[in-house]
Amino acid sequence: MGLLNFRKPKATPAHGGLDDLLGGYSIEVMPRTAEKVEDFRAILPKGTRVYIAHIQGTPIEDMVATAARIAGEGFDVMPHFPARIIKDEATLTDWIARYQGEAGVKQALVLAGGVSEPEGEFHSSMQLLETGAFDRAGFERLHVAGHPEGNRDIDMDGGDTSVMEAARWKQAFSERTDAQMAMVTQFAFEAGPVLDWAQRLRDGGVDLPVHIGLAGPAKLQTLIKFAIACGVGPSLKVLQKRALDVSKLVMPYEPTEIAVELAARKAQANDFPVEQVHLFPLGGIKTCAAWATEHGGAATQPAASAV
Question: Is this entry keyworded Oxidoreductase (predicted)?
């Protein structure tokens, strides 16, 4: 089936048509950024999935404590399991046991991790999945990384042959696990390349749900720094072009333009390849959550202290 099978456009809802796109969005935090939020119930919709990014050097104790705190406030937490900073299967099993015992975690984002040299025996998310540790622990949901603009750590020639092979492997794995799976992408700044990539996945027999990554509001200089560090591909030119416009250089970036384009395509497509949006709050969690609410994200629940 083609990517965009056009029909008569739906009536445009409030918030520029973003309600349907941003409903059920997920968001990413780190222990040090989570510390700046007094109560996540005051800023996030009830039931929001909160990813906890594991940066190299962060003690597992800090990761687990953050997961326990956010889960205790009523949110579904999904910690990262980066293969290249997990030394061995015993360490992986220990992490899983800690997360489950202290935070009741049943979800994980399994990824290679942005480290050039593995610290132990794992170098890919597939190796972590192959251990069977998540299945044995009864994890209900496993997400994996998607790379719409390629990944030079995997395909050093700038192509996507190995990335697509990995996607097919993950599809096959999803068919032999009881856990629900989805593919969450790196953030991008253009809708077209991501949707083209999602369609190529489908054409190649990969039908894992796609959760598209969007960078939240942030200073342009901050975004460019993160985009280069994270290996964002051709869509980086959107930021570079913006940086040449002095009138926009001093204005914070917001993902409204790409979100509106995605929402418009979703409204016109019978079979839209993106299931939901995942937000990277590069300019701050509160700022990102406020943008999502203002543009159609579900209304937040009152904090416990306000009830």
Answer: yes
